[in-house]
Amino acid sequence: MNRIDTGHVLSSSTISGDKVVNRAGEDLGEIKDLMIDVDTGRVAYAVLESGGFLGLGSKLFAVPLPAMEVDTEHHRFVFDQDKETLKNAPGFDKDHWPDFADRTWGASVHSHYGIRPYWE
């Protein structure tokens, strides 16, 4: 596995829909979207869609990109979280997205996953 920041350059359309698993190989969901901080030009979050069936009843999670690794061999991302931790993570639904520019909200998301905010 390689960290996402070791020279991989991928298009957002290539990543959208990619499967996300944890280290145990459990399915956590898939990448729904990428959120870009236009001031820095950096991908701030991957939006992970988890649970539900055919998009119904699913929950969305903002995941700081450095919290995941890209598994190029299997065309997926590895997110070192168990299902229970993800279930208890701050999430949102498709009709009520958070303000991704809110640094207080962002700091709480980064803290939940033990990742230092990229803007610090």
UniProtKB/TrEMBL annotation:
Positions of the PRC-barrel domain: 10-85
Taxonomy, superkingdom: Bacteria
InterPro entries noted in UniProt: PRC-brl_dom, PRC_barrel-like_sf
Pfam families: PRC (PF05239)
Listed name of the protein: PRC-barrel domain-containing protein
